[in-house]
Design goal:
Number of strands: 3
CATH class: Alpha Beta
Radius of gyration: 11 Å
Strand content: 15-25%
CATH superfamily: Response regulator
CATH architecture: 3-Layer(aba) Sandwich
Number of helices: 2
Amino acid sequence: MLPVENRTITYIEDDPEMIDLVGMILGRRGFQINGASGGRKGLDQIIAEPPDLILLDLMMPDMD
């Protein structure tokens, strides 16, 4: 099992303030957070750099 410091989380959310908040909380616990503002950007980011975990908002304006 990898230590927390080596775990990456992609957080897909259309509210930039929520990305910052969740990133700050999880970052303090040692996770590497990659935020994406919207479904399309999130999908591109996941393909380019697969994370260990994906957190996402279910209802977004560009792509659910």
